Amino acid sequence: MGQLQERYKSYRIPQEAMAKGIYPYFRAITGKQGTEVEMGGHKVLMFGSNAYTGLTGDQRIIDKAKEALEKYGTGCAGSRFLNGTLDIHIQLEKEIAKFIGKDDCLCFSTGFSVNQGVIPALLSKDDFVICDDRDHASIVDGRRLAFAKQLHYKHNDMEDLERVLQKLPQEAIKLIVVDGVFSMEGDLCKLPEIVKLKHKYNCSIMVDEAHGVGVFGRQGRGVCDHFGLTDEVDLIMGTFSKSLASIGGFITADADTINWLRHTCRTYIFSASNTPAATAAAMEALHIIQNEPERIEKLWKVTRYALKRFREEGFEIGDTESPIIPLYVRDVDKTFLVTALAFNAGVFINPVIPPACAPQDTLVRYALMATHTEEQVERSVVALKKIFVEQGIIK
Fold it and tell me: What's the rounded Cα separation, in Å, for the pair 255 and 262?
């Protein structure tokens, strides 16, 4: 047996869960993602999706993707830097920049590669990057790749953030990178307070709007717009894989910063550009959310109903302020078990265990789409209440 095989043979979490029949990952869906999906002949209510606007199966988006496929082919066979830039890539970047409210934009093949590439491209060894303890893994990987000095503060603890900042040189470049909406817990960053600290300590701010675009702000412009602080945030990133019903990501900022990134960001320069179909799909989704404000209104109506019902039934849901609702279990084994029992009862939810959270904070993640109905939510709440009571998690 080789060294690597020897090292990893002791990794038992998947095997143990598989042996118990409660392994919850890589479950195959056999059709379009909607509020109900079929998985291995078993139909379940889908409360594990990030498609907040409910657009992934929209025929208008499918048709635009087909048109792009016919016109441009299946791929670009190169990076944006060389032969892989299409006119629709440029058009989408212009539309995203205008939508978010920044000078310019770059589009990437994934949202993960935005954070992974932008953070190290911006910072040098004499700079500082400061992150929230619960920032997304893509932010964590981005800061790890940067030569900058890496610091962090306790989740949404502004006193702790100030404690970190006050120790740093006033003249040094200091980039605070934070999620607008935290993807597991559903709470928002304290952006107004972060902006005050930006001015007090001469910092820059980058906000990850992956779970904010299509949900918060005017026409779904995100958390920065929700707080009226777009101009105060130096860089705003987002993804197409959630509300925009596609795959890819973007970074928006002032023209000079974007020009620098266009020529130095390694995940942009050395990755193949996004496919024509994915680009066209994201653009059409962007048009739809701007032209159909009722879609986001429906999302918030069903979100308020779900929050109300989970609280009434005694679930612990933390400080969520979004369509992401954490149902705390606080036990790894029970988190897997609850997920499996929910699936058997016709409800798809996602388990969240370490390293995505602390061991004492394990949860199942319940997320809503604009296309969910209150009746579907009610069915899921009743099913989950029965499971949580039977497992002694709630009374």
Answer: 10
